[in-house]
Amino acid sequence: xxxxxxxxxxxxxxxxxxxxxxxxxxxxxxxxxxxxxxxxxxxxxxxxxxxxxxxxxxxxxxxxxxxxxxxxxxxxxxxxxxxxxxxxxxxxxxxxxxxxxxxxxxxxxxxxxxxxxxxxxxxxxxxxxxxxxxxxxxxxxxxxxxxxxxxxxxxxxxxxxxxxxxxxxxxxxxxxxxxxxxxxxxxxxxxxxxxxxxxxxxxxxxxxxxxxxxxxxxxxxxxxxxxxxxxxxxxxxxxxxxxxxxxxxxxxxxxxxxxxxxxxxxxxxxxxxxxxxxxxxxxxxxxxxxxxxxxxxxxxxxxxxxxx
Length: 308
Known about the structure:
By secondary structure, the chain is α/β, with parallel strands linked by helices. It is built from twelve helices and eight strands.
């Protein structure tokens, strides 16, 4: 287990002075993840908030080789770079150890980039793909994605007389990636920094494809205060809306179990995108969301029990 003092001594790959919003979860996730690489790293970055805010010409916030790629092909680009490295190493033209990581938001990961990501995982490229999940297409106007939670108010699932927000459950992408048979998949939260760091270490040393899904609040899209980012992450975990677990060679291990499982309303209520759910007449939808969370949590615990 690393100490904060040890981690603070690790050189930053993502420099300060970027233009991401105050309270954005993405740079917190990225900085914590990259500390686990322990080697020179090549970064592939799908179009999105992270990309546009760290590469405003003629400046860059990246202290590493960095490739901007389109929304839909971060997995393919990272695969190509990793394959080229293996070829050069085999030819004796490169002799140092280099790690490869791709970052994408939920829009570029769950949806637009899903095909390329699935291909990279299926081919078992030796790279880490990290999704910073803020629950919508925040960079282009807060449109719903397949990571958007049920009931959320977005510009393409607006609340009104005939709608109570997004009607569908969010996609369980972590389990989908694990179903590719990859060596490592995990779900993390920046509020639990040591859990995140240990999982990043495991991902970078997995010896094949690894996937990390990180909750990354967007104060603008979630309509919460920018100072509450880490608290929102903590509430997501303590309500089991966002459980922390890892899947190593197909075996499930829950890495954090709340002593007291809080009701999901504790996570929903501070967010403006769920404000309408607390108006009279929407009690049934809140109960439905709670049942979904409970069902998923119990299923995860059962999967862990079967893995032992």
